[in-house]
Amino acid sequence: MNMTLVRLKEPHLYWLATSVHNLKWYYTPTLVGVGTFFNFLSIHTFMRGRLKQYSCTPYLVTLAIVDTIFLLTFFVAWLHVLGIDAYNIGGGCQAITFASSVCSFISLWCTTFAVIDRTVLTHQSTTHYSKQICTSVTSTLIAMMCVAVSLVVYLNISLLYGVVHIQPGLSFCMPLSSNIKTVLILGHADAVWNFGIPYVLMTIFIIWNCRYVLGVNTSFLCKHKVITNIKDTSYA
Q1: Cβ contacts of residue 212 below 8 Å, gap of 6+?
Q2: What is the pLDDT of residues 30-77, one digit of tens each?
Q3: CA distance 107 to 35
């Protein structure tokens, strides 16, 4: 968009054009830089001292790693602004799409397992079993399983996606025309087990945890009130 032309012909849209222009140039690299820094800081923090012994630490470290990879793929796709198109080329298209899909899968399921882990440890009725099940070793194995499953599930991207040439000098990374129906079917399946199921599980366990915490607090308040009444009666 020619900023001078917009300023002369549509002055009331100039601020919008300027905002979009600045957003395109500065927002993405700033987001990637800040996000990557704090992700490395999180990894460094969780892997030191007693924190690395907690059962939720492997999930949080895995989340920080995959989030960093996702930010890097986002940054590589943004490089077309600088005239470096590493996304809409053969190999780059499949690699970036594959990496972003894998990161999305791992982040959602690791978050789900982290919620389940915290709920099981919080709930008093499962305390006896939680000490045996919810360990850092178990969490590490589950996180590794999420990585392995995601790598296998999304290998089809290398066959289903490619660079489609619209016209000379204009190409886009997208599903190949012969694979569009397959991509739509897999997309619906992915929406169910990569988005629907994790969010349903997280909602169920969060509600269960909240009910337990509220129940404990209510029980504590009732006991405190009874004790207070007994003391007041004894003094009377």
Answers
A1: 122, 123, 124
A2: 889 999 999 999 999 988 878 888 888 999 999 999 999 999 998 998
A3: 15
pLDDT digits (tens, 9 = 90+) for 70-84: 999 989 988 888 888
Question: How many CB atoms within 10 Å of residue 6?
Answer: 18
Rg (CA), the chain: 25
Write the pLDDT tens digit of every residue in 223-234.
Answer: 444 444 444 444
CA–CA distance, 203 with 208 (Å, rounded to integer) = 8
pTM for the model: 0.78
Set out the domains of the chain in order of their start, with CATH numbers. 3-235 (1.20.1070.10)
